[in-house]
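Data availability (excerpt). The following record was deposited with the supplementary files.
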Amino acid sequence: MGIKVDRVNDILSSEKFKDLVKKRLVVSMTLTAIILIVYFGFILTIAFYKDFLSIKIGDYITLGLPIGIGIILFAWILTGIYTRWANQKYDKSVRELRNEILEK
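Predicted structure:
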């Protein structure tokens, strides 16, 4: 049960496949850009505004600690957003495209 080269070329040139690849690229690059902005924003804050992050918010904790933990949690949230999108929309579209291909 293989797919012939002509059929592969048909799939690669189909609008549905191109649209699917484009959607995945847009979602993944958007989420990547968001986390990079947040991460490098934190790094730049460390580099240029140390005083801000060294503000004490308790006897032993500085402001930088909860912000750093927040960035880690934010990365998990973005991962969850991508996983939810992939499970609900992307995988469904891939299954539909695969079934369409196998029917022909």
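Summary of structural features: The first helix runs from residue 5 to 13.
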